[in-house]
Specification:
Distance between the termini: 53 Å
Structural class: alpha+beta
Radius of gyration: 23 Å
Largest sheet: 8 strands, antiparallel
Helix content: 25-40%
Shape: globular
Strand order of the largest sheet: 6-7-8-9-10-11-12-13
Mean pLDDT: 94
Low-confidence stretches: none
Number of helices: 10
Protein backbone atom coordinates (compact mmCIF):
# COMPACT_ATOMS: atom_id res chain seq x y z
CA UNK A 1 0.00 0.00 0.00
CA UNK A 2 1.08 3.55 -0.76
CA UNK A 3 -1.76 5.33 1.02
CA UNK A 4 -3.05 5.09 4.58
CA UNK A 5 -6.59 4.31 3.41
CA UNK A 6 -5.45 1.40 1.21
CA UNK A 7 -6.89 2.88 -1.98
CA UNK A 8 -3.51 3.15 -3.72
CA UNK A 9 -0.80 0.50 -3.93
CA UNK A 10 1.70 -1.28 -6.14
CA UNK A 11 1.23 -4.44 -8.16
CA UNK A 12 3.73 -6.01 -10.59
CA UNK A 13 5.07 -3.02 -12.51
CA UNK A 14 1.83 -1.05 -12.32
CA UNK A 15 0.07 0.70 -9.48
CA UNK A 16 -3.47 -0.21 -8.44
CA UNK A 17 -6.15 2.17 -7.24
CA UNK A 18 -9.67 1.74 -5.93
CA UNK A 19 -12.26 4.49 -6.26
CA UNK A 20 -15.96 4.78 -7.11
CA UNK A 21 -15.20 3.60 -10.65
CA UNK A 22 -13.75 0.30 -9.38
CA UNK A 23 -10.19 -1.04 -9.50
CA UNK A 24 -7.84 0.48 -12.08
CA UNK A 25 -4.17 0.12 -12.85
CA UNK A 26 -1.92 3.11 -13.40
CA UNK A 27 1.65 4.18 -14.04
CA UNK A 28 3.41 7.51 -14.49
CA UNK A 29 6.55 8.88 -16.12
CA UNK A 30 8.76 11.73 -14.96
CA UNK A 31 12.00 12.25 -16.84
CA UNK A 32 12.99 15.89 -17.14
CA UNK A 33 10.33 17.65 -19.17
CA UNK A 34 8.72 14.37 -20.23
CA UNK A 35 5.83 13.73 -17.82
CA UNK A 36 3.19 11.16 -18.61
CA UNK A 37 0.37 9.10 -17.14
CA UNK A 38 -1.66 5.99 -17.94
CA UNK A 39 -4.77 4.71 -16.18
CA UNK A 40 -7.09 1.88 -17.24
CA UNK A 41 -10.09 0.08 -15.76
CA UNK A 42 -10.24 -3.56 -17.00
CA UNK A 43 -13.86 -4.06 -15.94
CA UNK A 44 -15.06 -1.02 -17.86
CA UNK A 45 -12.59 -1.67 -20.71
CA UNK A 46 -11.64 1.99 -20.69
CA UNK A 47 -8.40 3.82 -20.24
CA UNK A 48 -6.36 6.91 -21.01
CA UNK A 49 -2.72 7.48 -21.91
CA UNK A 50 -1.32 10.95 -22.20
CA UNK A 51 2.21 12.16 -22.92
CA UNK A 52 3.59 15.65 -22.38
CA UNK A 53 6.85 17.52 -22.90
CA UNK A 54 6.37 19.92 -20.00
CA UNK A 55 7.62 20.12 -16.42
CA UNK A 56 3.99 20.89 -15.59
CA UNK A 57 2.56 17.95 -17.53
CA UNK A 58 1.18 16.15 -14.46
CA UNK A 59 -0.56 19.26 -13.14
CA UNK A 60 -3.60 18.48 -15.33
CA UNK A 61 -3.60 14.75 -14.57
CA UNK A 62 -6.62 14.72 -12.25
CA UNK A 63 -8.73 16.87 -14.55
CA UNK A 64 -7.76 14.89 -17.64
CA UNK A 65 -8.54 11.51 -16.09
CA UNK A 66 -11.91 12.74 -14.78
CA UNK A 67 -12.86 14.25 -18.14
CA UNK A 68 -11.77 11.26 -20.25
CA UNK A 69 -12.60 8.06 -18.35
CA UNK A 70 -14.06 9.33 -15.09
CA UNK A 71 -12.85 8.71 -11.58
CA UNK A 72 -9.71 9.97 -9.93
CA UNK A 73 -5.96 9.89 -10.56
CA UNK A 74 -5.13 8.66 -7.08
CA UNK A 75 -1.59 7.61 -7.94
CA UNK A 76 -0.75 11.09 -9.18
CA UNK A 77 -2.20 12.62 -6.03
CA UNK A 78 -0.35 10.17 -3.78
CA UNK A 79 2.91 11.11 -5.50
CA UNK A 80 2.12 14.72 -4.53
CA UNK A 81 2.12 16.30 -7.96
CA UNK A 82 0.40 19.62 -7.49
CA UNK A 83 -2.78 20.37 -9.45
CA UNK A 84 -3.13 23.26 -11.87
CA UNK A 85 -4.98 26.11 -10.24
CA UNK A 86 -3.76 25.25 -6.74
CA UNK A 87 -1.50 27.32 -4.44
CA UNK A 88 1.67 25.82 -5.87
CA UNK A 89 1.00 26.98 -9.42
CA UNK A 90 -0.47 30.27 -8.29
CA UNK A 91 2.89 31.11 -6.70
CA UNK A 92 4.93 29.67 -9.58
CA UNK A 93 3.06 31.70 -12.21
CA UNK A 94 3.39 34.82 -10.05
CA UNK A 95 7.15 34.26 -9.95
CA UNK A 96 7.30 34.01 -13.73
CA UNK A 97 4.95 36.88 -14.50
CA UNK A 98 5.45 39.38 -11.67
CA UNK A 99 9.11 39.00 -10.72
CA UNK A 100 11.15 38.59 -7.55
CA UNK A 101 9.51 41.36 -5.52
CA UNK A 102 6.10 39.71 -5.85
CA UNK A 103 7.58 36.35 -4.86
CA UNK A 104 9.28 37.84 -1.80
CA UNK A 105 5.90 39.11 -0.66
CA UNK A 106 3.89 35.99 -1.47
CA UNK A 107 6.26 33.18 -0.44
CA UNK A 108 6.22 33.65 3.37
CA UNK A 109 2.43 33.86 3.33
CA UNK A 110 2.13 30.75 1.17
CA UNK A 111 4.42 28.74 3.47
CA UNK A 112 2.41 29.88 6.49
CA UNK A 113 -0.99 29.14 4.92
CA UNK A 114 -0.07 25.84 3.21
CA UNK A 115 2.83 24.24 5.13
CA UNK A 116 1.91 20.79 3.82
CA UNK A 117 2.42 22.03 0.25
CA UNK A 118 5.34 24.40 0.64
CA UNK A 119 7.80 22.16 2.43
CA UNK A 120 11.47 23.13 2.35
CA UNK A 121 12.08 20.45 -0.29
CA UNK A 122 9.34 21.82 -2.52
CA UNK A 123 10.52 25.41 -2.05
CA UNK A 124 13.98 24.26 -3.17
CA UNK A 125 12.42 22.47 -6.12
CA UNK A 126 10.58 25.61 -7.19
CA UNK A 127 13.81 27.57 -6.99
CA UNK A 128 15.60 24.95 -9.11
CA UNK A 129 12.80 24.99 -11.67
CA UNK A 130 12.98 28.77 -12.04
CA UNK A 131 16.78 28.62 -12.19
CA UNK A 132 16.60 26.10 -15.04
CA UNK A 133 14.34 28.51 -16.92
CA UNK A 134 16.85 31.33 -16.57
CA UNK A 135 14.88 33.22 -13.90
CA UNK A 136 17.81 33.53 -11.54
CA UNK A 137 16.55 36.54 -9.55
CA UNK A 138 13.25 34.79 -8.88
CA UNK A 139 15.00 31.53 -7.97
CA UNK A 140 17.20 33.37 -5.49
CA UNK A 141 14.14 34.46 -3.52
CA UNK A 142 13.13 30.83 -2.96
CA UNK A 143 16.63 29.65 -2.08
CA UNK A 144 17.38 32.59 0.23
CA UNK A 145 14.07 32.06 2.02
CA UNK A 146 14.98 28.42 2.60
CA UNK A 147 18.44 29.34 3.88
CA UNK A 148 16.92 31.86 6.29
CA UNK A 149 14.73 29.05 7.65
CA UNK A 150 17.62 26.54 7.75
CA UNK A 151 20.78 28.62 8.30
CA UNK A 152 23.00 25.61 9.11
CA UNK A 153 22.03 23.56 6.05
CA UNK A 154 24.82 22.95 3.56
CA UNK A 155 22.30 21.98 0.89
CA UNK A 156 20.47 25.30 1.26
CA UNK A 157 23.79 27.21 1.21
CA UNK A 158 24.82 25.43 -1.98
CA UNK A 159 21.49 26.24 -3.64
CA UNK A 160 21.96 29.94 -2.92
CA UNK A 161 25.60 29.75 -4.01
CA UNK A 162 24.63 28.16 -7.33
CA UNK A 163 22.16 30.97 -8.03
CA UNK A 164 24.66 33.65 -7.01
CA UNK A 165 27.17 32.08 -9.38
CA UNK A 166 24.73 32.13 -12.31
CA UNK A 167 23.98 35.76 -11.48
CA UNK A 168 27.68 36.56 -11.81
CA UNK A 169 28.29 37.09 -8.09
CA UNK A 170 31.33 34.83 -8.07
CA UNK A 171 32.92 35.97 -4.79
CA UNK A 172 29.68 35.45 -2.88
CA UNK A 173 29.18 32.07 -4.56
CA UNK A 174 32.68 30.90 -3.66
CA UNK A 175 32.16 31.98 -0.06
CA UNK A 176 28.87 30.11 0.25
CA UNK A 177 30.20 26.96 -1.42
CA UNK A 178 33.05 26.89 1.10
CA UNK A 179 30.57 27.28 3.96
CA UNK A 180 28.35 24.57 2.49
CA UNK A 181 31.21 22.07 2.58
CA UNK A 182 31.69 22.56 6.33
CA UNK A 183 28.04 23.14 7.28
CA UNK A 184 26.71 21.47 10.45
CA UNK A 185 23.77 19.96 8.55
CA UNK A 186 23.85 18.04 5.21
CA UNK A 187 27.23 19.46 4.12
CA UNK A 188 28.18 19.44 0.46
CA UNK A 189 30.69 16.78 -0.54
CA UNK A 190 34.18 17.76 -1.62
CA UNK A 191 33.82 16.21 -5.08
CA UNK A 192 30.79 18.34 -6.01
CA UNK A 193 32.52 21.48 -4.71
CA UNK A 194 35.64 20.68 -6.73
CA UNK A 195 33.51 20.25 -9.85
CA UNK A 196 31.77 23.60 -9.39
CA UNK A 197 35.08 25.34 -8.70
CA UNK A 198 36.17 24.28 -12.17
CA UNK A 199 33.18 26.09 -13.65
CA UNK A 200 33.89 29.18 -11.54
CA UNK A 201 37.50 29.21 -12.69
CA UNK A 202 36.49 29.00 -16.34
CA UNK A 203 34.04 31.89 -15.97
CA UNK A 204 36.33 34.15 -13.93
CA UNK A 205 39.77 33.36 -15.28
CA UNK A 206 39.56 31.02 -18.29
CA UNK A 207 42.63 29.28 -19.65
CA UNK A 208 44.05 31.13 -22.64
CA UNK A 209 44.44 29.23 -25.92
CA UNK A 210 45.98 30.84 -28.97
CA UNK A 211 44.37 30.82 -32.42
CA UNK A 212 46.46 27.87 -33.62
CA UNK A 213 45.38 25.71 -30.67
CA UNK A 214 41.72 26.58 -31.22
CA UNK A 215 41.89 25.86 -34.95
CA UNK A 216 43.49 22.50 -34.21
CA UNK A 217 40.59 21.55 -31.93
CA UNK A 218 37.87 22.87 -34.22
CA UNK A 219 36.05 20.37 -36.41
CA UNK A 220 33.18 17.93 -36.56
CA UNK A 221 32.80 15.14 -34.03
CA UNK A 222 29.70 13.25 -35.10
CA UNK A 223 26.73 15.34 -33.92
CA UNK A 224 29.04 17.74 -32.08
CA UNK A 225 30.65 20.66 -33.85
CA UNK A 226 33.39 23.07 -32.77
CA UNK A 227 34.02 26.31 -34.64
CA UNK A 228 36.42 29.22 -34.16
CA UNK A 229 35.02 32.70 -34.56
CA UNK A 230 36.74 35.98 -33.64
CA UNK A 231 39.44 34.10 -31.78
CA UNK A 232 37.04 32.12 -29.59
CA UNK A 233 35.75 28.55 -29.64
CA UNK A 234 32.04 27.80 -30.11
CA UNK A 235 30.04 24.59 -29.68
CA UNK A 236 26.84 23.27 -31.23
CA UNK A 237 25.13 19.93 -31.47
CA UNK A 238 23.14 18.49 -34.40
CA UNK A 239 23.56 21.70 -36.38
CA UNK A 240 26.29 23.99 -37.68
CA UNK A 241 24.01 27.03 -37.78
CA UNK A 242 26.01 29.94 -36.31
CA UNK A 243 22.89 31.08 -34.46
CA UNK A 244 22.91 27.82 -32.49
CA UNK A 245 26.60 27.95 -31.57
CA UNK A 246 27.42 28.63 -27.91
CA UNK A 247 30.62 30.11 -26.57
CA UNK A 248 32.95 27.75 -24.72
CA UNK A 249 35.02 28.82 -21.69
CA UNK A 250 38.25 26.92 -21.05
CA UNK A 251 39.07 25.29 -17.74
CA UNK A 252 42.32 24.02 -19.27
CA UNK A 253 43.82 23.39 -22.68
CA UNK A 254 41.46 20.48 -23.31
CA UNK A 255 38.38 21.00 -21.11
CA UNK A 256 35.59 23.55 -21.58
CA UNK A 257 32.28 24.62 -20.06
CA UNK A 258 29.21 26.39 -21.39
CA UNK A 259 27.95 29.49 -19.63
CA UNK A 260 25.07 28.73 -17.22
CA UNK A 261 25.50 24.97 -17.73
CA UNK A 262 27.27 23.78 -14.61
CA UNK A 263 26.55 20.04 -14.79
CA UNK A 264 28.30 19.40 -18.13
CA UNK A 265 31.74 19.93 -19.59
CA UNK A 266 33.42 19.04 -22.85
CA UNK A 267 36.86 17.45 -23.01
CA UNK A 268 39.01 17.09 -26.13
CA UNK A 269 41.02 13.84 -26.29
CA UNK A 270 44.33 13.87 -28.17
CA UNK A 271 46.29 10.93 -29.56
CA UNK A 272 49.99 10.32 -28.92
CA UNK A 273 50.85 12.68 -31.78
CA UNK A 274 48.86 15.50 -30.20
CA UNK A 275 46.00 15.34 -32.70
CA UNK A 276 42.39 15.65 -31.46
CA UNK A 277 40.57 12.35 -31.98
CA UNK A 278 37.33 12.61 -30.00
CA UNK A 279 35.21 14.65 -27.61
CA UNK A 280 34.12 13.44 -24.19
CA UNK A 281 30.92 14.79 -22.74
CA UNK A 282 31.39 14.64 -18.96
CA UNK A 283 28.59 15.05 -16.44
CA UNK A 284 28.64 16.04 -12.79
CA UNK A 285 28.41 12.99 -10.58
CA UNK A 286 30.01 10.70 -13.16
CA UNK A 287 28.98 9.30 -16.49
CA UNK A 288 29.49 10.67 -19.94
CA UNK A 289 29.63 9.92 -23.64
CA UNK A 290 32.13 10.25 -26.44
CA UNK A 291 31.98 11.26 -30.08
CA UNK A 292 34.93 10.49 -32.43
CA UNK A 293 36.25 13.16 -34.75
CA UNK A 294 35.00 12.77 -38.33
Amino acid sequence: DMSDDGRVGWSLGFGLQRDDSGTSFWQWGDYGIFRNYVLANPEQRSGVVYLTNSFNGLAVCGELVAASVGGEALGNAELEYQPAGGPFYELLWAAKESGPDAVAEMLPRAVNDYPEIFTSERVSGMGNLLENEGLTAEALVFHRFNLDQHPESGEKMANVAHCEMLAGNFDRARELFAEAQSAPEDPSDAESIEWIMGYLQAMENPAQLDEAALQKIAGDYGPRHLRVRDGRLYYSRDTTDPEAQRLLHAISGDTFVLENVTYFRLQVVFDEDGQPVKLLGRYEGGGGDETPRD
